[in-house]
Specification:
By secondary structure, the protein is of the alpha/beta class. The protein has 2 domains: 16-142, Response regulator (Rossmann fold), CATH 3.40.50; 171-233, Arc Repressor Mutant, subunit A (Orthogonal Bundle), CATH 1.10.10.10. The protein has 11 helices and 5 strands, in the order αβαβαβαβαβαααααα. It has a 5-stranded parallel β-sheet with strand order 2-1-3-4-5, with helices on both faces. Helix 8 (174-184) packs across helix 11 (219-228) and helix 9 (189-196) packs across helix 10. The radius of gyration is 18 Å and the shape is globular. The chain starts with a helix and ends in a 6-residue tail after the last helix.
Amino acid sequence: MSDTVNHQASEQQGIRVMVVDDHPMWRDAVARDLAEAGFDVVATAGDGEQAVRRARATGPDVMVLDLNLPAKPGVQVCKELVGSGAGPKVLVLSASGEHADVLEAVKSGATGYLVKSASTAELLDAVRRTAAGDPVFTPGLAGLVLGEYRRLATEPAPAAGSGGAKSAAPQLTDRETEVLRLVAKGLSYKQIAERLVISHRTVQNHVQNTLGKLQLHNRVELVRYAIEAGLDDV
């Protein structure tokens, strides 16, 4: 057990995190918990405009982001930073568990969504997994997100939309397609690694290669692509 804890601590030391929340006491408490757990807290911010500016200056790996922010809403912050392709992975930490807020956050590029009733241990695990590229959701919300993508996938594609998505599939190797299929089913990288008897790092490499080949920016877009291609039904 101690070996596991030591391994996690060493992993966390290399993860740069930024905390964005308009409540100073909450923001400071989250930043303190992360720092004490070994994460490198490189910045904090109390409003949306400050968040974008400081994120671009400090380059965090993960942004823990509240949605309800002054100056610029969290969803807009997410769009501006994640849309650049070089921005941080975003873990939303919100008081709201409303389905509309969750879906809006994910569509704007957030990797995960946690409600503020989560424990400190759940938050630390969520930040660690977000940094690794795993989608992390408060229990019950992952199914909601996958269900929404399935609904969108059944709607007619716009004329200039992703009609060429399926034709890109032959670019993928058999292993990449296999990993993509499991991603679409909602499995974490750890679960995929165990299923395919390969390392967690190998799974990450396959996902990164697939993102590059399909010209997608993050795992959320990858899940959408896989569902549209029908890979989640195989």
